[in-house]
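Form P-L/3: holo structure prediction, ligand calcium ion.
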Amino acid sequence: MKVRRFSQFRSALAFITCFGAAGYLTTQSQGSEKPNIIIINADDLGYGDLGCYGATRIKTPNIDRLAKGGRRFTDAHSASAVCSPSRYGLLTGRYPLRKNFWGPIPLTQPLTIDPAHLTLASLLKGAGYDTACIGKWHLGFGTQKPDWNGELKPGPLELGFDYYFGIPSVNSGPPFVYVENHHVVGADPADPFIYGKKSVTQQYPEKSGYAGIGGGKEAHELYVDEMIGTTLKNKAVDWIKKRKNSKPFFLYLATTNIHHPFTPAKQFVGTSDCGLYGDFVHELDWMVGEVLRAVEEMKMTDNTLVIFTSDNGGMLNVTGQKARKAGHAMNGALLGYKFGAWEGGHRVPMIARWPGKIPAGTTTKHLISQIDLAATLAAIVDRPLKEGEAVDSVNQLQNLTGSSKMPVRKTLIISPNSPKHLTVRHGKWVYIPSRDEGGFQGKKLGNHLFAGAAALPFSGKSNSDVVNGKIRPDAPPAQLYDLEADPYQTKNLYSQHPETVSELKAILKGYRTKIPPTQPVGWINLKQKM
Ligand code: CA
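OUTPUT (holo model):
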């Protein structure tokens, strides 16, 4: 098997990216059918990337329609500002810090989720569901190191998924193949995968991209960037159409849209007003529309809970910079980007639709994390969590249904890529125990990793610690923001509220003790690398 596109550029990119009310529950779930559950987890989709979240240069009619039929969350967070730990948190209901998990994992990483831990899949499989994971995995395989030429086990199937098809790692890096259940699709024992081997397309670049080498049966020929969205959509739709009404299903669809490289299928190129960035979102919207159409055709809409979200905030890479110049703000007015501790890194779109159960066309500003899906789904299927299961997850069913006027969750720990920037949210306050956002370190326009204080002037945003794109020498050592009064984090109140700082520091200190003394998983010291 050839290591396709193991070019210096892309491999480098791959490396760095990579019903609190029990009574209510009982009355809701008893005597009613368990709903089908679809979670669509987009990749790097920012808070401002959807029409229903304010985008104007990008049109997302299908996702907007989903929001219109359900509830939109304006203070929803991924567990981490980075792909892999974010997915770990969503699937397990555990903070990534419990695994010492900070960054995107390399190809050599074994499975990051302990099969003994509860996952959304094992929870729902245990409740009688058919389960499938389709799309980007990026959580490792195997117990030591993935065997790309053999059995990729344990993997999604050992965590409760009946079926898996997708991208094993990330679309910006090798192995550039699909995996189905335990094996690479089209793997050829006569041409085995070798770590670091040069790709054929590196020698024949004219065959990459739209020219494609697709159409063959060999693993890398089956994988064509511009067809990933279509392929995953087809697999998801086919799987849904094979379901029977007698058994509920759980589909976790993790798209590669809109992670770089931006490779929408031809029919979407040029359809947005902000270049390939927007075109790739358009393809994502089409995928969502097709999946919802399949549910509709199966006459399952009324008994299907659909949750749409993203694994982390938008990234100001070169394609993103072009979109910004065209008037698109990927994270809306929020400060910061993917990988970072500021809101733009981890406050993400979240929409939940469940006709008759979730009030249509509503929004909620109550704090919620993807970590909370485990306890919430457990409540929906009436399967109480046991001691040690999904330990950081909070049941948010009341927030979904709108039956509570108060936030269900007050405190939330959020992991950026930098452990020094481990962030705590407590009510309206957010505390970041260091300066800047601690994410990507690109300092100039045109840099793939443009972010942080340096990117503020270009982004048209301001922060009291920053002057001319640099942290002021006399800026406080850490950051405190009042998100109620200042949602866009323009004013660091660290010096004005020492008592609040102490209180939040103490909460953080308690959680730091839960970080195991093991080798950090996926952490990249970006400062050293730049
Ligand atoms: Ca991501």
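COMMENT: Residues 1-31, 198-213 have pLDDT under 50 and may be disordered.
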